[in-house]
Amino acid sequence: MNKTALDRSYWEDLYNSNKTGWDIGYISPPIKEYIDQLNTINLQILIPGAGNSYEAEYLHKKGFQNVDVIDIATQPLNNFKKRVPSFPKTNLIQKNFFNHQKKYDLIIEQTFFSSLHPTHREKYVHKTHDLLSHNGKLIGLFFDVEFSKEGPPYGGSLKKYSQLFSPFFTIKTLDKCYNSIKPRFGRELFFIFEKK
Ligand SMILES: C[S@@+](CC[C@H](N)C(=O)[O-])C[C@H]1O[C@@H](n2cnc3c(N)ncnc32)[C@H](O)[C@@H]1O
User: Fold this and answer.
1) Is the Transferase keyword given for this protein (predicted)?
2) pTM for the full model?
3) I need a surface site. Which of 34, 72, 78, 161 has the fewest CB within 10 A?
């Protein structure tokens, strides 16, 4: 399979065969901690490649009303509709992230970037930059490890991420994550990037 262009059917097949090893089943503690310090409830928030999106569920339950969830696959969005029936259906968007157009104050990243072939990383940087409003933020987690097996996931390092994002974003935080879940402990970086 050509892994540089993983399409919808690739992801649908993984969901249909329950091969969703990335799915931790609840909001990850570093992202929860970030959300807990937000005090502007009307932020426009995007979660791309959201999967089952426990982050969107958490935000919704905290009263955030402008949260968009995007995934190319239908199954996680259907799971989400069942799990969180009060979440507005129009904010559940089944689409290729790279074709999406809107402006956001905040984009939350978790294992979507790492699921993209490294040849698509620059495209991701440009797209997240385009989707953010003035001073908008891209925050989340990156793997701090180079995987020996062909991905996804594809890993990286602090130096690589810094080189990739710093021409377009001010790097506010890019540090070893201290509150990762156990299996990812020592293998993740938490970041906050602000649009330049
Ligand atoms: C590794 S999973 C991560 C899911 C979720 N963020 C999590 O951490 O549990 C990658 C997700 O990105 C979605 N995806 C892959 N390519 C996409 C694209 N071009 N546009 C939108 N979603 C995409 C997949 O369907 C899958 O749900």
Assistant:
1) yes
2) 0.97
3) 78
